Amino acid sequence: MYHRTPNRAGLGARTPALTGPLSLVADFKLDGAVYGSPIVVDGRTFVATENDSVYAFDSAYRQLWKRNLGKPSPQSERPCGNIDPLGITSTPIAANGVCTSLLSSAATSATRCSPSTSAPVR
Q: Is residue 31 one of the residues assigned to a domain?
């Protein structure tokens, strides 16, 4: 649920207050374009790419793992759209220690993101 309530009026209880101007904190080298928003869960940053890959980074922005979840759809397979290739366009979802990404095939794939797991589990 976006912003914790159906009307999008809430913030997470552990969301820190923003102070000062926004700035770039990391420049990740990934295997594809990113259209969804990265998310942060328990100090880990999760990012999904159009190459159907999900990455996890620790609080110092070091890569913990990368999992390729499928094969993206090339433009030639689709009658419309301007993303080529079309992979994971959505923002990952985290709930109950599991990160879920929606793939271009409309299938779902889950990767465990609990702090006690050092590698993804499918």
A: yes
Complete DSSP assignment for 4-25: GSTTS----TTPPPP-S-----
Asked whether the predicted pLDDT for residue 17 surpasses 60, the reply is: yes
Secondary structure tally for the chain: helices H, strands E = 0, 7
90 Cβ partners below 8 Å, 6+ apart?
Answer: 36, 48, 101, 102
- Does the N-terminal peptide bond of residue 85 adopt cis geometry, omega within 30 degrees of 0? yes
The domain in which residue 30 lies consists of 26-116
Average pLDDT over residues 93-105: 67
Whether 12 is in a domain gets the answer no
In a domain, 20, yes or no: no
User: Tens digit of pLDDT for each residue in 66-93?
Assistant: 999 889 989 898 888 889 999 988 888 8
- In degrees and rounded to multiples of 5, residue 76 shows phi and psi of -65, -20
Question: What one-character DSSP code corresponds to residue 95?
Answer: E
Examine residue 8 and state whether it is found in any structural domain, yes or no: no
d(CA 35, CA 15): 23
